[in-house]
Design brief:
Blueprint (H helix, E strand, L loop, with lengths): L1 H13 L10 H19 L3 H5 L5 H12 L4 H16 L4 H34 L1 H10 L5 H16 L5 H15 L1
Helix pairs in contact: 2-4, 2-5, 4-5, 6-7, 6-9, 8-9
Length: about 180
């Protein structure tokens, strides 16, 4: 019992905090794997997206080399480990923020695309009932053109032809709504 009292005194006297404790092997390995996954997401970015991510020259060179050896399993794995090692010594917060911005922009584009698809399908199914509210929402749309696409799409569907008018309607909506 006396020994436990001494340990309590030591903790209070030195004010041991969780930050000062060393990480376990499991925690270190989890951090290494997380850095490698972050590095792998950098490798799979497009060139224009990669240019938006702030990183030092050494990390950029490692990512570019990983892109070149993508097909070689063992070399690629080791290159990802190197990227993870480099990233442990780098401030990754700006990199994570840039990746989040890129993903959110991509998500916005996809959502807009799906909204236009839904609008097109509703116009084709409901006809004039949907055209009037759509024109109220988007005054740049041409009522006559929309009706023409609906008629053509219905005719093509009745004749079991490819939905060319439906695709053209989608393109028209996309160009007019997105500017």
């Amino acid at each position: 019992m006396v020994a436990s009292k001494k340990n309590k005194d030591i903790e209070v006297e030195f004010d041991v905090s969780e930050d000062d404790e060393q990480l376990s092997k499991t925690q270190i390995k989890a951090q290494m794997v997380a850095m490698q996954k972050l590095g792998e997401s950098l490798v799979h970015l497009g060139q224009s997206s990669l240019a938006k991510v702030p990183m030092d020259e050494e990390l950029l060179e490692a990512v570019m080399l990983a892109r070149k050896i993508l097909r070689k399993k063992e070399g690629y794995r080791r290159q990802l480990q190197l990227i993870g090692k480099i990233m442990r010594n780098t401030d990754i917060v700006p990199i994570e923020q840039a990746l989040a911005n890129i993903k959110s922009a991509h998500k916005k584009i996809n959502n807009a695309f799906h909204e236009i698809e839904i609008l097109r399908d509703e116009i084709l199914q409901q006809g004039d009932k949907k055209i009037d509210p759509t024109i109220a929402d988007y005054p740049l749309l041409d009522r006559q053109k929309l009706r023409q696409y609906v008629r053509q799409a219905n005719k093509q569907q009745a004749e079991n032809k490819p939905p060319k008018a439906s695709r053209e309607l989608f393109q028209y909506l996309k160009q007019t709504i997105n500017g």
